[in-house]
Design brief:
alpha+beta, about 45% helix
Length: about 220
């Protein structure tokens, strides 16, 4: 059955207009983007197929053009449009973090980090540099490594903090393995970086571990 034959209250576009985007599932939101399905499948069915194949919205965004093009009904134009939407989302969150105290929008910090790191298949360590009002001034991926580990050098982190005239920083790295649980090495590294930055009066506000759509906060766990 085509979406146009569905009851109006169940159609993704009408549902969004009536209830807002938050009321829609990932598949429904993706179906609005796709607009049409393929023979024998509605746009929602096609959206569900994509989510099943790539695991999540982040997985779809992280897929290559070749991988997406192997799905019937998805071509280069859809890949380009998806990448544009993804980048606009990241930039919009970046702008918001630049304009307000990060403590006023902790969920936006998490959302931003999930968009940046959640779908990566290699481990990346990044730093958010903040001014005296806790507003984002820069975000840099400083180190990357293999699937399981990365080498982080405190001296380089200190140098970048001084370069950005940062008053404080937030660390983040991803676990491609899919678990947010911190390791003893993660805790040790955090303390080493905290001590190094204290020498130049830069505070460490938090360290996030990102795994897919999930995040773990060292500050909330009392690990700082």
């Amino acid at each position: 059955m085509a979406i146009t034959d569905w009851p109006a209250s169940e159609r993704p576009r009408e549902k969004l207009i009536e209830l807002g985007a938050d009321a829609l599932s990932d598949a429904e939101l993706l179906a609005i983007f796709l607009r049409v399905g393929v023979t024998g499948k509605s746009a929602v069915d096609l959206a569900r197929d994509l989510l099943n194949q790539f695991g999540s919205l982040n997985g779809i965004f992280a897929a290559s053009e070749r991988e997406l093009s192997q799905v019937h009904g998805i071509g280069s134009s859809k890949y380009v449009q998806l990448q544009a939407i993804f980048e606009m989302s990241r930039r919009a969150l970046n702008e918001q973090l630049q304009q307000r105290d990060v403590f006023q929008s902790p969920q936006q910090v998490r959302d931003y980090l999930v968009l940046k790191l959640g779908a990566l298949t290699r481990e990346v360590f990044m730093v958010l540099f903040l001014d005296a009002q806790n507003r984002l001034t820069a975000a840099e991926e400083l180190f990357s490594g293999t699937l399981t580990q990365t080498s982080v050098y405190p001296r380089e982190v200190v140098k970048r903090a001084i370069y950005h005239n940062a008053a404080s920083v937030i660390f983040a790295h991803n676990h491609p393995s899919g678990t947010t649980q911190q390791s003893a090495a993660d805790e040790q590294l955090t303390q080493q970086l905290k001590q190094a930055l204290a020498l130049v009066d830069v505070r460490v506000l938090d360290h996030f571990i990102v795994a897919g759509n999930q995040t773990l906060s060292f500050a909330e766990r009392g690990l700082l």
